[in-house]
Write a structure and sequence with these properties.
CATH superfamily of the largest domain in chain A: Aldehyde oxidase/xanthine dehydrogenase, molybdopterin binding domain
Structural class of chain A: alpha+beta
Shape of chain A: globular
Largest sheet of chain B: 5 strands, mixed
CATH topology of the largest domain in chain A: Aldehyde Oxidoreductase, domain 4
Number of helices of chain A: 20
Strand order of the largest sheet of chain A: 3-5-1-12-9-10-11
CATH architecture of the largest domain in chain A: 2-Layer Sandwich
Bound molecules: FE2/S2 (inorganic) cluster
Distance between the termini of chain A: 56 Å
CATH class of the largest domain in chain A: Alpha Beta
Number of helices of chain B: 6
Number of domains of chain A: 3
CATH architecture of the largest domain in chain B: Roll
Number of domains of chain B: 2
Helix content of chain B: 25-40%
Order of helices and strands of chain B: EEHEEEHHHHH
Number of strands of chain B: 5
Largest sheet of chain A: 7 strands, mixed
Distance between the termini of chain B: 57 Å
Number of strands of chain A: 29
Largest interface: A-B, 59 and 59 residues
Oligomer: heterodimer
CATH superfamily of the largest domain in chain B: Beta-grasp domain
Helix content of chain A: 25-40%
Strand content of chain A: 15-25%
Shape of chain B: elongated
Strand content of chain B: 15-25%
Chain lengths: 794, 165
Amino acid sequence: MPHPPAHAAIDRPNSYIGRSVPRPNARRLVEGRGHFTDDLPTTPRTLHVAFLRSPYPHARIAGLDLAAARALPGVALVATGADIAAVCTPWVGVLTHFAGLKSAPQYPLAIDRAVWLGEPIIAVAATTRAIAEDAIDLIGIDYEELPAVTDIDAALAPGAPVIHPHLGDNLAFRLRLDSGDVDAAFAAAHTVVEDDFHFNRHTPVTLETRSILADYDPATQRLTVCQSTQTPYQMQEVYARHFAIPAANVRVIAGDVGGSFGMKLHVYGDEMATVALSIMLRRPVKFVADRLESFVSDIHARAHRVRARMALAADGSITAMAVDDTTGIGPYSAYPRTSAVEGNQAVRLMGGPYRHRAYRGSLQVVFQNKAMMSQYRAVGHPIACAVTEALVDRAAAALGLDAIDIRRRNLLTDDAYPYTSPTGYVFERLSHHQCLDLLERSCDYAALRRDQQAARQRGVCRGIGIAAFIEITSPGPAFYGVGGAPITAQDGCVMQLDPSGAVRVQVSVTEQGQGTEAIMAQIAASAFGVALDRVRVVTGDTETTPYGGATWASRGAAIGGETVLLTGHALRQQCLALAAAILQTQPQTLDIVDGRVVDAADGQERISVAELARIAYFRPDTLPPGIQPQLVAARNHVPRDQPFAFTNGIQASHVEVDTETGFVRLLGHWVVEDCGRIINPLLVDEQIRGGVVQGIGAALFEECLYSPEGQILNATLADYLVPMAGEIPDIHVAHVETPTLLTQLGAKGAGEAGTAGAAAAVLNAVNDALRPLGAQLSELPLTPQRILAALGRV
Amino acid sequence: MSSETVAVTLRVNGETTTQMVAPRTHLADLLRGRLGLTGTHLGCEHGVCGACTVFIDGATARACLVLAVQSDGAVVETVEGLTDAADPTLRALQEAFVARNALQCGFCTPGMLATAVELLRETPAPSRAAIRERISGNYCRCTGYHAIVDAIETAALRLAGHEPR
Ligand code: FES
Ligand code: FES
């Protein structure tokens, strides 16, 4: 294995990289001084929007009477789908690299026909949200209910009603992967384990709902949109495209964002309609989703049925895996990233941590009359992980092997890299065995097994679940750009030395609480050579930051971080050149440490950075002739050496199941993660913990319940269960650090890891607890009802 | 749906204010929209998430479940007011939340802090289980709660004059 390069910036004196420094923006938030979109000051000219949403999963709009709504004092405009479509072109959620993916043109508001319960149909702009809602109540609308397709099998059955007739059927996308001789491997297998797994829909539930404040200025044809979004530049492109405004005239500002998790990077009709209303009315227009409409209009997630099989030899080595995944995405493929990515990643990540070479995966992506389904944190990962790890546990039980033992026999060895997986993924450097060893120690696996035996003596059902996983991070252009999406894979940074000697960093990655600004400040301070409190980071505004991909798919630290590092180096070189001119020496004999230009050899201070800046800005007349100080540096960075990166890790869950009530008590949860270079341990651990709890939510609580007719049954926060503090255990996080060698920084990304493996670990723990009772579950969430059913008690 | 308004007089963060409000306006909207106290957040407006938690007459309450007209004559304290008043319990919690990174997006944080202030005023040294139990009415979607529990534990120790471990 090649040796890591000398990480010059990282090993520099007083580097902040790898240190747990608190976030500069946290103080503001604990004092209630956030700037979430709904907090922004509005003027009396601002209008507020409410939407009439379809109460049916599929219905024709047979009659509309808008007179009373229009007559209500305070109402500025009542707009139909056709009205909005006059200023906003429709979109189609397809990308060319998903060959065969199809979807229908989608308009901001339904025109003639609504295809899911919650689809916006009419928009009302009024002086207050309350008046807008009053006007909604005054709308007369007649629906002619149409047959709804909700079940994925029924949607594909011959003769099923076709949601978009011109597409021919309800199959949006199909994919088949085949590698090695799968049939021969199954034929020769000593043991085959198989099951059908069900992953029910859930939804991200960011605590701050989707929020947008659009302001169109017809005099300059400029559109300014303040929005709770992860991706300001993507949205700038979207608005430019669909409202026919030059992109340069569109400014998107993401202030504080109250959680996103992949939910706030899709295009939503209600948000597009809000922008349209601002253009039509030439006034600021604001929309803040209420929680009830969030449940039926935010993207839902997962929704898979997976038929899976695994073949093993007598010694417990996995020889082949075959899966058949059908996923329901609602009535359209989401825009601009499509709803094919979830299933695509699920079938490509199956079996990812293991050594077998024979794999067959097939995927069907299906239209249905339910809310739209698309990318949410750890896209596809939890499905692949839960299916694979559940089968590994079943194989272990069938072969009489311990859960750790069977994984140790099968995990890719730490000297196998670079490695190309049967599904075509290239792993640069992973560390499965180091992670497994560390997990075994950190959870004291042997003690947990002893505890399990002792508990059984007392008639208490406890279980331990292990889940190894890989995580896709740092997406390059192969993710979206190649398919024609206006989504850049590069990031940009502009760094300026201010007259006071402070450094201003404008960077395209965005902050939603991950700690982006803190991490970028740490990298900038280390790369340039100043104290952390001398660095100010600016993010989230297309007008004040360079163009770039922003924050999604765990790209912030890896791509954004490398960009800042390179920019910091460039600015340091420029300042050293200036200092050398002033000091009559060579730049390479100097260094910048802690805000001082020093002799590289002995660390003696020659001039402070602040003094250098003062001279450059205010007394350039004193500089040697011909010197033009360069106090701004700018760099872009995009991953070129691999289409995306991979990290790995492993989790363990310890549970107790009450076989009388079906309730699961979480006793402990452990994670070992290898996210490459760690920039801020405090922040990375919290990313992982937060992700784990979202995975636990999927495992035990969260489910969007639909009736067979397509009515959603639990669309309130009182009925939809989000994990609460009382039911979540402490989560122990440990790290193995294998930096990528493809960048100077070596960071890989960590945003998805917790969510990728948590549900699988809990599923395995519950099944481990129930195994002596002969019960086994394969449907998430593991509700008390399902557990009691598995136990034959209900 | 009537447009008639009612006068409400209440004391918010030490200042008395009289506002004309529609009877259906809830306290959180009055605080946020009329008084610019946007530290009180709205995550559900149906009493579940706790993001809108404030103090009313010394006890925590959900500002989305209280009508502005019901708070006539009440004493209301929000995160902004407790911060400006240098409330020692809040200050210890804020320090601990920042140091421990017990917030990510920060949307739940003002409500979480209000609940924690009340807990520590009543129970100077709560166990982790007691902390978890008490904050179970405050949803946090980002942190997974562990860091929040740590921070509240640390603040409790500091307030009791102990240096945390
Ligand atoms: S907004 Fe009041 S409890 Fe959620
Ligand atoms: S920090 Fe985001 S909801 Fe708690």
